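Predict structure. Chain length: 280.
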Amino acid sequence: MINHLQDTVTLHNGVKMPGLGLGVFKVEEGPELIQAVKAAVKHGYRSIDTAAVYQNEGSVGEAIAELFKESTVAREDLFVTSKVWNADLGYESALAAYETSLNKLGLDYLDLYLIHWPVKGKYKEAWRALETLYRDGRVKAIGVSNFQVHHLEDLMKDAEIKPMINQVEFHPRLTQKEVRAFCQEHGIQMEAWSPLMQGELLNNEVLKGIAEKHGKSVAQIILRWDVQHGVVTIPKSTKEQRIIENAALFDFELTEDDMNQIDGLNEDRRVGPDPDNFDF
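Prediction complete.
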């Protein structure tokens, strides 16, 4: 379990990944995103998660370039993630998509590259491309996103390299117990997207009660729950004060009863698409 903002988890290939990062899903290109990334790094964040389909890699790259120019942080201290979109899940097209993402981000390599969704009949060819990038030293770690247990089993039947990460929707209404257990058994680190359920959980009475007891916000309680479950988490915010608050998780601990109460909120309910039944 991580104990401060720059603590890392060690992936099965030995790469160290920050346990808490900044997500930029649905944040448009432009000054707001640039300032959010710069504020996050200024306040100690070292992990930034984007994707080709977010159409904001350019602004993330611009922010990183400014941070380098200001000598705020060195490249080796950052952990940058992007994802290959569904339209590019062939072997050659995934390789090309990686180059496009690198160019937009203005980087020589990514720390983590993920297959964004398990599109039936396509993700194995894309995985071969990711394995090539990894073997060639172009990317530090590779993984998947939104893969359920059967997708992971199917991929791993033919894969030469096991995914290092599975990034999935994870919050108290969707605790992904089977996926978590499978990932733990196979040494695949689970990572949470939409950890706050896009704000839907912030008025939950159970969470509000636990938050009041600890003198914390509901968001901090949920993110601490992620941390204590050993799940890497990437809350999104563009507001500097919220970015700071989201990282203030290390001066308290949820009790076993707190954890059980939060686990008990599970309804297997998603705010995002169902990986077994989606159409993009």
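Summary: The first strand starts at residue 8 and ends at 10.
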